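pinging the channel bc i need a second pair of eyes. not urgent but kinda urgent?? the chain im working w is below, pasted from the shared doc
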Amino acid sequence: MQRSEPATRAGIIGPRRAAPRRIVAACGIALALLLVEVIARIEGPRVCVGRDDVLLSPDDEVGWTFTPELTVTVDPCAPPGTRRTWTAPVSINAQGLHDQPWPYAKPRGEVRVLLLGDEVADGVGIARADRLSVRLAHLTDRTRGARVAAINGLIPGYGPAESLRFLEKRGIRYAPDVVVLLLDPDSDVAATLDPPAAQQRAADIPPAAQALAADIPPASGLLALSASARWLAGRPNATPARPIRLDEPEPISGEAERARAHARLLELVQQIADTSRAAGAGFAIAIAPRCPLTPAPSGASLCGALEGIAPCVDLGPVFTDLAATKPGPSELCLPGQPRWGRDAHFMASHRIWDTLGASQLWPAHVVRGHRL
């Protein structure tokens, strides 16, 4: 009997369906583009931290602020081909502060601290979590006490006169419970001899500032719609219509001029204290030297003179002690910048908190936590 070959199972042969794969590929591309867009909106294009025509804008009410709604990543202005030692995203709110959006209306039960001063502690160049205002707020134990919100009102070029104007025109609207003024013992004293702001209010530019040409036109077309397009083109999402450059104050020459500047400084700080207290806020002072940090005997003497106006803490010795005792390289300063690094913000937040506590300026329902 002849054996038959086993039957083979017939395969079904037909056209392969490519549509599902194309749909998956299209979804992947769309998701990647969306991710790039989100990152671009968070970080913005990279700009040099020294770009005068990007970071600052005139403000008819307070003189000048950071450029409102600006989102960029700043770097240390390193030459092409040079390794960047640091970069950090910068996001400016609608009020021109390097901070999250803050409504003027204070939520029930919230305690607010308003920080005033110049760029030494404005947080440009470091991560948000390391910023003085954020660290100060995070020292609170919110489970046992009130929530503390620290508003970062530190703006480049702000001396005591500009800080007073900001407090009067805008700062009081935040309803702060405590106002802390950060003073540079050298440049802020010299800045008091500049022409008073009232003499220059009729001018088209704010005091202590110079007008610049608008080198970067406002974004339009695709650049106005797409953050990733602006990222590739190196165009910020917001640019000042009237860019400005801040001038350093003239150095003090002679003891007579120093005495006059010192007296004017005490007068301005007294006005800031009176304005704060009239609004129901406590007031304290922190002597905040700019980088590079060196022992400054003037800081201790200035703090002593200001103690008659408000509680004062001199941060200079705190920084020099840390530099002397910390093993390895410290991050007290941003390289090539007058601004503090993360270590300085960390130390300053603890010393300012302790000063407010020792002076009983914290409301009773604020409780110190143990977070670092």
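so Confidence is low (pLDDT under 50) at residues 196-207. and The chain has two domains: 25-78+85-96+212-246, 97-208+249-372. — does that match what u expected or am i reading it wrong
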